[in-house]
């Protein structure tokens, strides 16, 4: 490919995707709302852009083959704050991708689109939406948007329902962990699979305790290699007793399932900011 665009390049997950994406196209255009994202890799350029601004997104995607859309507010906030970057931003990316003739949108969706399912239900990629927050609702909106743009306009989409792409710090993460190496493989398969139509795939490593079923997305060729079980002895020894009345422990969405609408879900999680430094 000639050009890939990465939104959300200044975020933690974006920091791990930038260098691998430079190997998949002649040019990688990284974008975020930050002033800069540090030293650029060979073949990478940076354009500051607000995804809530359609004109900025349209210009950003000029000449691109695909867009890897990771730009968003990545926590639960009041709906009015979520509306611009997460709802309108998703529309702007798909609409600009269609008008600019891109082949595919690769989208960072989330388990929070189906976060209110009970943890003891082993869910596949085809379960109906069941969001746990406004954040999860935005993921539902974008997934439906992607399906519609494929069925009405033949613009392909791969929606990556990421579970927990962060260091393993809780019993829940023993099932939901997505390692950075597996994240890179997942995004690479979403890009280099010749045809995808509209696809959903869970972003999770090969964990013994994984609560989701990716078998119906096997055509994408995603074969995770890492397993969170190696952390189990330490994590379970340090964990408090299980509480079956706690929605954070009993729903797929974890703390997002128990947090009041509009209030931070990340506040109940011990997320380590270990973004890759250039």
UniProtKB/TrEMBL annotation:
Keyword vocabulary terms for this entry: NAD, Oxidoreductase
GO molecular function (one): oxidoreductase activity
UniProt xrefs under InterPro entries: Epimerase_deHydtase, NAD(P)-bd_dom_sf
Domain NAD-dependent epimerase/dehydratase: from-to ranges: 4-162
Region (Disordered): 258-278
Gene3D superfamilies cross-referenced by the UniProt entry: NAD(P)-binding Rossmann-like Domain
Coiled coil: none
Pfam families: Epimerase
Family note: Belongs to the NAD(P)-dependent epimerase/dehydratase family.
Listed name of the protein: NAD(P)-dependent oxidoreductase
Originating organism: Rhodophyticola porphyridii
């Amino acid at each position: 490919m000639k050009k890939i665009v990465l939104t959300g390049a200044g975020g933690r997950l974006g920091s791990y995707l930038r260098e691998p994406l430079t190997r998949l196209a002649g040019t990688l255009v990284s974008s975020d709302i930050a002033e800069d994202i540090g030293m650029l890799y060979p073949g990478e350029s940076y354009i500051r852009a607000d995804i809530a601004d359609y004109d900025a997104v349209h210009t950003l995607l000029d000449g691109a083959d695909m867009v890897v859309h990771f730009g968003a507010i990545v926590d639960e906030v009041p709906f009015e704050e979520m509306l611009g970057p997460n709802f309108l931003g998703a529309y702007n990316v798909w609409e600009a991708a269609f008008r600019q003739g891109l082949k595919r949108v690769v989208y960072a969706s989330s388990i929070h689109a189906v976060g209110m399912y009970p943890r003891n239900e082993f869910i596949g990629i085809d379960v109906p939406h069941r969001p746990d927050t406004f954040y999860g609702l935005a993921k539902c909106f974008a997934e439906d948007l992607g399906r519609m743009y494929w069925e009405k306009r033949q613009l392909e989409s791969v929606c990556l329902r990421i579970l927990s792409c962060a260091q393993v710090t809780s019993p829940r993460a023993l099932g939901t962990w997505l390692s950075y190496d597996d994240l890179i493989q997942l995004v690479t398969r979403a890009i280099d699979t010749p045809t995808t139509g509209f696809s959903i795939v869970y972003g999770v490593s090969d964990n013994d305790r994984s609560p989701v079923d990716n078998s119906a997305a096997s055509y994408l060729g995603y074969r995770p290699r890492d397993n969170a079980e190696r952390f189990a002895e330490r994590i379970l020894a340090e964990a408090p007793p299980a509480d079956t009345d706690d929605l954070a422990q009993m729903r797929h969405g974890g703390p997002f399932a128990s947090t009041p609408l509009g209030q931070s879900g990340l506040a109940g999680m011990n997320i380590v900011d270990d973004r890759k430094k250039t």
